[in-house]
Amino acid sequence: MSDQVAALILGVVQGLTEFLPVSSTAHLILVSDAFKLDPDKFGLSFDVALHLGTALAVLLYFASTWVGLVADVLRGRWRLPLVVIVGTIPAAIAGVLFETAVSTTLRSAVYIAIGLLVGSAIFVLAERLGARRRRLGSLTLLDAVVIGAAQAIALVPGISRSGITISAGLFRGLERGDATRFAFLLATPVILGAGAKTLLDARKLSGLTAELDVVAIGFAVSFVSGLAAVAFMVRYLRTHSLNVFVLYRVVLAIVILVALALGAI
After folding, report:
1. In this predicted structure, what is the pLDDT of residue 58?
2. CB of 36 within 8 A of CB of 44?
């Protein structure tokens, strides 16, 4: 397999699974291991490209919402912008405190399988117990803290940032569509922050420009597939539940556990 084809595959995986509630981290780890990708070719610069591609996708899709939030700040209307800011803080703190554990120990296949199963159980409970009566404008700072804390848990591979934050929104009584929109609003600064952090970690500047075609493919494909995934999720969850994704996650977890038992991975 050529580097360009591998970059295309990883770009699609990142773009789709960043916003579908199936865990992008888990899928990137599994795909990278399956194709035995060279970390020197798909390292920090490529990770930055993938993060920036998906961040641009969600920024573009919610551009009018972000413009509205900025306008609210300029007019002194801080309530909703403050809710978004507060909701972002827990994931930022957790990322700093638990970066080492997340990037090493928790990246093993068994933890991914556990994360997939635990996340699925949370999705099912959220669908069953959520009142789904509140709208985005009713969010409080307490809601932001709870949903933001859920987003922090998504650092564990297999959980899914979008899935856990949407579920937290459902637990707080939000309509599924508004829970989805708020989940993606909270995800935007986190994805941008992850990209910026990775960029700062790239100590060899030559590595930032190495394999430029591979980096460009990863960025472009993650942007296009990410934009498609966001648009799909926003529309799909207006009238459908998370249950179809639960089925996929459980099947994937079983496949991983069976592969582990057989020594295949």
Report:
1. 95
2. no
The pair of three-digit structure tokens given for residue 132, joined into one six-digit string: 């789904």
Evaluate whether 221 touches 8 at the Cβ level (below 8 Å): yes
pLDDT at 206 > cutoff 60? no
Q: Is 134 helix (H, G, I), strand (E, B) or coil?
A: strand
* 108, two tokens: 């093993």
- Give yes or no for residue 72 having a pLDDT over 60: yes
Q: Which of 25, 16, 6 is nearest to 226 (CA)?
A: 16
CB 195 within 8 A of CB 52: yes
Q: 62-69 — which CB contacts under 8 Å span 24+ positions?
A: 62/181, 62/184, 62/185, 62/188, 65/181, 65/185, 66/188
Query: What's the pTM?
Result: 0.92
Residues 6+ apart with CB under 8 A from 221: 7, 8, 11, 12, 15, 53
Percentage with pLDDT > 70 across the chain:
94
Alpha helices in 62-160 (DSSP H): 63-74, 79-97, 99-103, 109-129, 141-153
